[in-house]
Prior knowledge:
Layout lengths: L2 H12 L6 E4 L5 E5 L3 E6 L4 E5 L2 E13 L6 E2 L4 E7 L2 E8 L2 E9 L5 E10 L3 E13 L9 E5 L4 E5 L8 E3 L5 E2 L12 E7 L3 E8 L2 H8 L3 H17 L2 E3 L4 H12 L2 E4 L3 E4 L2 E2 L13 E2 H14 L2 H12 L11 E2 L20 H16 L2 H19 L10 H4 L13 E4 H21 L2 H19 L2 E2 L4 E2 L2 E3 L4 E2 L7 H6 L4 H11 L5 E2 L2 E2 L21 H13 L3 H14 L26 E2 H4 L4 H7 L2 E4 L4 E4 L10 E8 L2 E8 L5 E8 L3 E4 L20
Parallel strand pairs: 33-37
Antiparallel strand pairs: 1-7, 2-3, 3-4, 4-5, 5-6, 5-11, 7-8, 8-9, 9-10, 10-17, 11-16, 12-13, 13-14, 14-17, 15-16, 18-34, 19-20, 21-31, 22-23, 24-27, 25-26, 27-28, 29-30, 32-33, 34-35, 35-36
Helix pairs in contact: 1-3, 5-6, 5-7, 6-7, 7-8, 7-10, 8-10, 10-11, 14-15, 14-17
Amino acid sequence: MPIRYALFLLAACACTAQPLIVKPAQPGKYIAANGRRAALLGFEDGSLEAWVFPIKLLRGFRLSVYVDQALDPLPLSELVETAEIRPHAATLVHAHPAFTLRQTWTASPDKPVAAVLLDVETSRPLRFRVTFTPEMQPMWPASFGGTSTSWDAKSGVLTFTEGQRRFRPVIGSPAFRRVSEQVGHQLPERTVSVEFDLEGSGAVPILFAASRKDYDEAVQAPERILLDAEARFRAFFGRTAELAWAPFSEAYDWARAAIERGWACNEGVGCGLVAGWAPSGASQRPGFGWHFGGDTMMSVWAMLDYGDFEGARAALDFLLERQRADGKIMHEWTQSAALLDWPSYPYGYYHADTTPLFLHTAELFLRQTGDRQWLEQHWPQLERAWRYTLTMRDGDGLLSNLKGGAAAVETGALSGKVARDVYLQGVWLAGLRGWARLARWKGAETEALEAGKMLAEARAAAERWFVPGPGVFAFAELRDGTRYEANSAWQAMLVSEGGIRAGLARRAAAAMASPKLMTPWGARLFATDSPYYNPLGYNDGSVWPFVTSQVLLALLRHGQAPAALAALDGLRQATGLAGAGFLAEYFSGDRLAPGPRAVPHQLFSSIALIHPLFAGVLGLAPDAMAGRLEVAPQLHCGSAPLMLRGYRVGDALLDAEFHPGRPNRVDVQLRSGKLGVHVQPGSCFDPLPPRRLSPGMRP
C-alpha cells in the first residue's frame, strides 16, 4: 500500500477539533473504537477483541514483529510508548530503534466494519504477525454450533461462519499472506496466526467486517472509515451544547462523547443505547454492552441537557417498542435477542423502578423538547405504563418491590431481604408527578387529578420513613417487618425529585453531605456506620457515579451546594482512572480506585458530569410546553465565568454567560425561537477548600 495513504491518515487525525488526550501508554487501561454496528474493545498494550454486532468475532488480538533475522517475534505491547485518544479513534505509538509504528483503532459510524490502521516508518524490511483466538459467537445467552473458517489466500481474508451460514463475518487485509490454520468445524480455543511483510515504510489496514461484501467495499478506501468516524463526532459536537468552564469543559466533552459512543445496532434488534462497554475476555458479554432501560433513561436526561433531542427520542422509542403488554417498561435486552426467545428469560422485566422512571423521563423529555407529537403518538403506551405502576401499590400508596421487582438492591448483604426500598419510592414520586403533568398536557384532566391525589398520599407515606435522630430516610422496609435505617445515597432521588417537605429534605441533604457517606469522589451507597457497610461491596458501600449524580442534585437543591461542587470536582478528577475519557461504573468506598469488576465505560456514570451541572449548578429548569426557562445558578465565589453555547429548549436556541458574584450575573442571548427566560441570580457561596485527588488515596 502506498506511503501517500499513510500521510493522508496522519493528516486526517491531526485536523480534528475534537477533544484529545495524549498520555504515556498504560497497558492495563481501557481503550476502544465504537461504531453503531461494530466495535474494538481492548487495552493500551494493543490487545483487543472485535465485535460486529451481535457477534464476537475474536479475542486476544495482538501484533508482534520480527526484526532482521530474529526467530521469535517481538510483541508490540513491549514497545508501546504513547496513547492518543479521541472520541472517534485511539492511536498507540510503538517505538523501536529500527522503526516507529502507529496503530489506530476506529469503527465506521453506521456500517458493520471496524479497522486497525497501521502506519509504519522503517528503513528495513519487517515481518509482522497477528495472533488471536477465534470466537464466532453471538452475545450471551445465544450461541452458535458448527463454527468454522475458510482462508482466501489471494485476497488475505479469513471468513468465519456457523452451522446455518446466516452470519459470515471476516478479518482481512490486502497485506495478509500466511495463516496458521483454518478450521472445518468447531473453532478451537487456541491462537490463530496470520503474517504479512513490509519491505519499507507504508500503511496496512486490518479490517473486521460483518460480511465479505462489507469488507470488499471498505478495503477500497480504508481511510474513509477513519474520516467518517471523525465526521460523525465533529457533527455531534457541532449540534450539541458547548460548555466553557474551567476546569470542567474537558470532562463535559468526554462525558457527552461517552454517551454518544453507547449506540449499538443490529438487524435483529434495531438501534438503542447500551449501558456500558468493557472487553468480555473469555465470556460473551462486553461489559454491560446490551440495552438497559434505566441506564438508557438516565442517559436521556443528559442528552436532553446538551440538546440531542433526536437521540433522546430514538432512545425512548426503543424502550417503548419493547414495552410489555401489561405496560411494564423493559429492564434489559440482549443484542442477541433475535436469535432466541429472550422474553422467556427472567431478566427482561425484573426491575420495579423502570416503569415509574419512564414516566419521570417522559416528563423531562417534553419539558425540554416541547414535542407534543411524541406525546400524542405514544399516549396509549404512556397510559399503559401508568396503569402498570398502580399494580405495584401497597395500601399506603407506596410501591412494593415484592410486587414489581428489584430496584436499588440486586446483590450483597440485603439481597432477598427487601420488601420496599427508598429508591423505588423516590422514583415513584417523580413518576407520579411526571404522569400528572403528562396527563395535563394531554388534556386528560381526570387522570391528572387522580395522580395528584395519589401523589399527596404517597408523599405523606414516604415522609413517615424519616428517621429523626440521624435525620435520614430509612433505606428499606425488610421482609421480616423491620426497617433498615442506615444513611444511604439511595434516598437522594426521594429528596431531589420527590417534592417532600423542605425541612425534611434539608436534614436529609445535610446527612448525605456527612463524611460518613460522602467521599471526595462521590457518595457511598451506604455510610461507613451502617451495619453491612463494605467499601468493595457492589451494593453495600461502593461509590456509584450515577447515584452520586442524584445526591448532587439533592445537595444543590437543599442547602448543601459547597459539598455538591466538591464532589462534582471529585468525579471530574476520577474521569480516566479506568480508561482515558471515561468514568467507571463504580469505585471503592475506601480508596479512589475503580471497583474490582467495574466496567470502564459506563454511560450512566458519565451523566453525573452533565445532569447535575445543568439541572443543579446552572439551575436550568426548562418548560418548553409553556415556552419558558427558569435559571437559578449555584456557583461558588471563586469560580471562573461559565459560558454555555447552543442550549436548546423546544424550538429555541440560546447562549448564556454566568458570572459568579454577590449577586451572580447571568447574561442570556436568544439565538432563535421564542422563549420567556426568568433568572433568579441569587449570590455565590464560599467553596470548600479545593482538593487534588490521586489514585489510591483515602478519604
